[in-house]
Design brief:
Layout lengths: L20 H12 L5 H15 L10 H21 L8 H14 L4 H25 L6 H35 L2 H12 L6 H11 L8 E6 L11 H4 L4 E9 L2 E8 L5 H8 L6 E5 L7 H13 L8 E3 L4 H8 L1 H12 L7 H16 L4 H8 L3 H15 L6 H14 L1 H13 L3 H9 L1
Parallel strand pairs: 4-5
Antiparallel strand pairs: 1-3, 1-4, 2-3
Helix pairs in contact: 1-3, 2-3, 2-5, 3-4, 4-6, 5-6, 7-8, 11-12, 12-17, 13-17, 14-15, 14-16, 14-18, 15-16
Length: 438
């Protein structure tokens, strides 16, 4: 099946001017009929691709699964885009860029990659024509032609983005040996930064100088083996001068060179794209202390829960890191800090711990805590007296406050209280006025 074309004798002519809303909707509905068959269509494309171009197999033993997964992703996203059902978070251009980088790294010739894209577009066009053949009322001939025209125009855009990404990655690979880069990253993670000769070689390989700020980013792969960050190079492009990434032993990690000492912008940039927990830690002595930064970043990622921002800097979660480092020590801290309160009936213990967390989170103010807990100030004071009697600790004693806070971090009450305080301090002037009026 050739691509849709317009010529004399075809009997079909392009639509002049803009399509009406009804015509656009009709085309989208036609494409939507193919969505249930997206994976089957993608698998047929993959099979045809390897039959026509066996050279793909030279890219490695896992290339078949890689291309099949990638083709399915492309077809699903493409059909959702064409049918107007695409999610707001889905970005086709990002998938095309990532594919260009990956195929360059796999050593697959660009012409084969472009041929695969053409095959995919042709197959989608054929499937739409077949669907209309089975159901003539699906789409009138004129709109079928328009659908094909737009499909092939989209192919041009895909190819432009993919070629640019492929060439950029090829240029990077020509400048640096990727295999050597990955070996250096493994060595840094394993603590070889303490070897001066290794550090010199690592800097040369990674394109670093002694003046570069160094930080480590770590995130575990999901249960399905998906990395928490897709295209991390693009995610940090505006806030770092250089980055290198690796996946090893169920973990995605990278060396990044932040533009500023403050790692907050790096965390924000990564959080915008992260689909899993990601920790960031500064390597205070460059590559020499990278292994320590790796451990701190990994522990930070381990403390990030489902309700937390997905990327965090280690220094912003130190209490959580301390209480997650060793379960036995953490349990000892809780037991020592809470005393007999730890064995109190669950319902009463929950009320007292929640009250304690809100008082500590509001700098020891029963008045402010009472506002957040929607109860009387005297009720909060009474509960605090109970806490002090049961624990044998005073919230005005620095050491006791520290122990109690760590115990609350472990129990989860501290995060809830801090979130409540944060929400209260971000109330808009309009909502404050409305509240006062009530």
């Amino acid at each position: 099946m050739a691509s849709p074309s317009i010529g004399r004798g075809s009997g079909l002519h392009p639509v002049r001017g803009r399509l009406s809303a009804e015509e656009r909707a009709a085309i989208q509905r036609a494409w939507a009929t193919l969505i249930p068959e997206a994976d089957a269509i993608a698998d047929s494309i993959t099979l045809a691709l390897f039959e026509q171009d066996p050279d793909y197999l030279q890219a490695g033993s896992d290339i078949t699964a890689v291309v099949r997964r990638s083709t399915r992703e492309h077809i699903r996203l493409g059909l959702r885009k064409l049918s107007g059902t695409q999610h707001g978070s889905e970005d086709n251009t990002e998938v095309w860029r990532r594919t260009g980088r990956e195929r360059a790294r796999q050593g697959i010739p660009m012409e084969l990659v472009l041929k695969a894209y053409t095959l995919g577009s042709r197959t989608l066009w054929e499937e739409l024509v077949n669907a209309r053949g089975a159901n003539p009322g699906l789409l009138e001939p004129r709109l079928l032609l328009v659908a094909g025209q737009r499909l092939w125009h989209a192919l041009d855009a895909q190819n432009t983005i993919l070629v640019d990404s492929y060439r950029r990655e090829t240029a990077r690979m020509q400048q640096r040996d990727v295999t050597k880069i990955l070996a250096v990253l493994d060595g840094l993670r394993d603590g070889r930064g303490a070897d001066p000769a290794f550090v010199v070689d690592a800097r040369n390989t990674l394109g670093l100088t002694a003046q570069h700020r160094i930080a480590c980013v770590v995130g575990p792969l999901s249960e399905r083996g998906d990395p928490p960050l897709t295209s991390p190079e693009d995610a940090v492009d505006g806030v770092t001068s250089l980055s290198h990434w690796h996946i090893r032993d169920g973990v995605q990690f990278g060396v990044v060179c932040p533009a500023k000492a403050d790692l907050g912008p790096v965390a924000e940039a990564l959080a915008a794209r992260a689909v899993g927990p990601v920790g960031i830690a500064a390597s205070t002595d460059g590559l020499v202390t990278f292994a320590a930064a790796y451990r701190a970043a990994a522990r930070t990622a381990a403390t990030i829960g489902a309700g937390d921002t997905p990327a965090a800097v280690a220094t912003d979660r130190l209490p959580h890191i301390v209480m997650s480092a060793d379960d036995e020590i953490s349990d000892l801290v809780v037991s020592h800090a809470l005393g007999s309160l730890n064995g109190h009936p669950p319902a009463q213990r929950e009320v007292l711990l929640r009250t304690l967390a809100h008082v500590l989170a509001t700098d020891g103010s029963p008045t402010n805590a009472a506002k957040l807990l929607y109860c009387h100030r005297n009720t909060v004071i009474y509960r605090l007296h109970q806490v002090e009697e049961l624990t044998g600790r005073s919230i005005t004693a620095p050491d006791d406050r520290l122990l109690l806070t760590l115990a609350l971090v472990r129990s989860g009450h501290w995060a809830d209280a801090v979130a409540g305080v944060g929400a209260a301090t971000t109330v808009t002037p309009e909502s404050s006025t409305a509240t006062s009026a009530r």
